Amino acid sequence: MAMLAACSSPQERKMANRGFEYEEAKLEGRAFLIPAGLQSPRFSSDYDVPPLPESSRDGVTGAKVDVRPPAQLLTVVPGSQIVQGAGEPTIAYYALSTSQDVGSDAWAFLMNFLAKFGVTTEQLDRNAGTLETGWFTNTAALDGWGEEDDDYQIRQRYLFTLKRDDVRHSVNVSVRVLQHEEEMDGEKSTTLSQDEARRYAVRALNQFSLYYDQQLKSREQHKSATGMGLALGFDNNELSAWVADAPFEQVWLRVNRLLPGYGFTIKDTQQSLGWIDVEYDDPGKEFWQQAGAEPFNLEEGKYRFQLGEMTGGKTSITLFDEDKKPVKSSVVSQMHITLSKAFAKAMADKTE
C-alpha cells in the first residue's frame, strides 16, 4: 500500500517510471586507426554534422519531461465546437433555440460555476468580456488528485474571456492561467511551463463545459414545487446581481423575511419601486459558525437592495452602497454562497 501511495504523487504521475541514467551518457570520440602498411583514406567534410546550438538544450529532459497525454477539450455541450487556431483553449457555444440568449447564459453559467467551487469574481468587465477569478484551491477543476493528497497543495487564478458573435448566435469562451501556487512536501513553486499552463486551462474549461451542460439539462426539467433558486447574473442594467427564479411578488416577500436573520435591519421599503433600504451589522463569528454559513465579505453600513422584474418570470436583486453605487462583483459572488442556501432553505420551510 505504501508503494502504491508513493507512486500516485502528482509529481511522479508526470514522469516516466524508469531511471534517467542516460542523461549522464557522453559521446566518446575515438581516433581513426590506420593499420600498418595502409595509406590514410581521403576524408570529405561534405557530410559533417554541425554542432548543436546552445538553444537546442533549452527544453526539458529526463525527469522533467511530462509523459502524460495532452489534455483535450471536450465538446459536451450540444452544438459546441473547439475554436481551432486560437492562442488559448477556446470553445464556441451556440444558441440551441431562437429564444436562447446564449451570451447572457454563458455569463450567468460562468459566475455560478465559480460559486459552485466557492470561488469569487475578482474583476469583471462585461464590455471587454473578461472575468478574473479568485483562487481555486485543491479542487477537481485543477487536479483530479488534489483533494485526496494532503502533501500536495495547489491553487490558481484564471482569466475567462467571453466574445459574443451575434451573427452566428454564439459565444466563444477562452481560459488562461493568471497565477499559480503549488506546494509539494514543503517545496513551493509559482512557475508553470507553457504546456502545463495550457493543460490546466483546458481542464478548467472542460469543467465549465460540464457545468454548462448540466444547467441546460436542468432547465429542461420540471421545476420543483419546493425551493427558490438564486443564481448569479445581471440585472436589466447589466449590473452584477442575484437572479431569483420566481416572480417579483414572491421574491419581495422572501427578501424581507430573510434579511433580518443575517444582520440586516430594514429601515425603509418601497415595493412599487422595488427597493429595500437596510443597515448591515455583522452578526459575528459565533453566528456564522452556528449557522454553518460563509460570513459576508461586506462592510458594516447602509445599503439598498433593488429588486427588478425580468423576462421569464425571474427577479433580479442588485445591491447598492450608501452612495447608490453598485457593490463590487467579488462581494456579490461571495455573498451568493450563503444567500443561495438561505433562499432554498426558506422555500423548503415555507408551509403556505
Secondary structure topology:
Layout: H1 2-7, H2 10-14, E1 81-82, E2 90-94, H3 102-116, E3 121-125, E4 130-133, E5 136-137, E6 152-165, E7 170-184, E8 187-189, H4 194-220, E9 230-234, E10 240-244, H5 248-258, E11 264-270, E12 275-280, H6 285-291, E13 301-309, E14 315-321, H7 329-349
Antiparallel strand pairs: 1-2, 2-7, 3-4, 4-6, 5-6, 6-7, 7-8, 9-10, 10-14, 11-12, 12-13, 13-14
Helix pairs in contact: 3-4, 3-7
Structural class: alpha+beta
Helix content: 25-40%
Radius of gyration: 28 Å
What would you call the shape? elongated
Write the element-wise H/E pattern from the N-terminal end onward: HHEEHEEEEEEHEEHEEHEEH
Brief write-up:
The protein has helices spanning 2-7, 10-14, 102-116, 194-220, 248-258, 285-291, 329-349, and strands spanning 81-82, 90-94, 121-125, 130-133, 136-137, 152-165, 170-184, 187-189, 230-234, 240-244, 264-270, 275-280, 301-309, 315-321. It is of the alpha+beta class and 352 residues long.
Task: Name the descriptors.
TATA-Binding Protein, signal, 8-stranded antiparallel beta sheet, single chain, Alpha-D-Glucose-1,6-Bisphosphate, Chain A, domain 4, alpha+beta, disordered N terminus
Description:
- It is a single chain.
- It contains seven helices and 14 strands.
- The protein is an alpha+beta fold.
- Strands 1, 2, 3, 4, 5, 6, 7 and 8 form an eight-stranded antiparallel sheet that branches.
- Strand 6 (152-165) and strand 7 form a beta hairpin.
- 24% of the residues are buried.
